[in-house]
Amino acid sequence: MANILFEKLGGKYERQGDYLIPCLTVLAEEEQPIGTWGQRHLDYLKQYRKVTYTNLLTNGKLNTYLADIDRQAQERFERLIEGMKQAQGITERLKEENALEWVQHLNNIRACARQIVNEEIVFA
To answer: Can you tell which superkingdom this protein's organism belongs to (predicted)?
Structure first.
């Protein structure tokens, strides 16, 4: 068999019947917790960016990449919520005076922030 790149990089073959099958392994990577944002991005990669997903998986960088996306998305989400609360004047005083109105405003802000983070980070 000719000297090919796989053999030059230290690749080994296993004989199965009359065939030589390359022994492939996926590189081990450090396990990091992945939150909701990272899981959403993982689903997006699997469905719409299959080549990127496969490259990250085979290079052993998928978990690190998803943990980073999750961290970025969570930080952006929290900054957006605080900015929108200040811009709309949602304060603790409103919470004391009219809790239902405060919850209504906060739920609206969270939904808007979630949509922005999805568009800018998770599904980009």
So the answer is: Bacteria
Cα separation, 121 vs 83, whole angstroms: 18
Q: What's the pTM value of the predicted model, to 2 decimals?
A: 0.76
Domain ranges of the chain: 31-122
Look at residue 25 and tell me whether its pLDDT is greater than 80.
Answer: no
- Select the more confidently predicted residue: 33 or 117: 117
- Cα 84 from Cα 118, distance rounded (Å): 17
Q: Which residues of 14-41 are buried (b: 16+ CB within 10 A; e: fewer)?
A: eeeeeeeeeeeeeeeeeeeebeebbebb
Neighbours of 6 (CB within 10 A): 12
Provide DSSP, 68-94: HHHHHHHHHHHHHHHHHHHHHT--HHH
